[in-house]
Amino acid sequence: MRRRIRVGDHDAFGDLFDAYARSVYNHAYRLTGEWSTAEDVVSLTFLDAWRLRGKLDEEGGSLRPWLLGIATNVTRNTRRAARRHAAALARLPRDEAVRDFADEVAGRLDDAGRLALVHAALAALRRPEREVLVLCVWSGLDYAAAAQALGVPVGTVRSRLSRARTKLAKQLKKQEPPVSRGQMRGDRITAVGPLREENR
Hints:
Layout: H1 2-6, H2 10-32, H3 35-51, H4 64-91, H5 102-106, H6 112-123, H7 127-138, H8 143-150, H9 154-175
């Protein structure tokens, strides 16, 4: 598969997309918290993978860490571009505001409250900690594969993950609403527990 992708075999690249597009989407969504942005990241990730195919090692195991590493970089660039775009829009003269229905629609989701708490807690993490948490906990990569995806030593992955878990637990505990009478206290931490994907 690696050799076929390196030489530009379209069928092999199609198989690569079929095998890992869902995994890349899940990873991008966990980093951004936005479905539409995650879809854009998937497209850009596979475009970059095609462009970078010549640098792929012919020997090795699963291509998932390679793709998730590309997706992580694409997400960084996408967010940077979005910030620049937002700053440019903020400098434009204000027109009459159009009502935004996004929050109203999101509020109808059953788990909107819990997702908001988790998203806020994740946003409080430093970017390197958040990336390691998403790769190891949600995408199910082991330390070595996450290190490969991010281009850092395994020890760095371990320490970032440890700090991320500690900070996340504190954030979620801090945001936990008070218990009202007759209501059981929920465990918010389970909302960010490992939803592992199949490793290929």
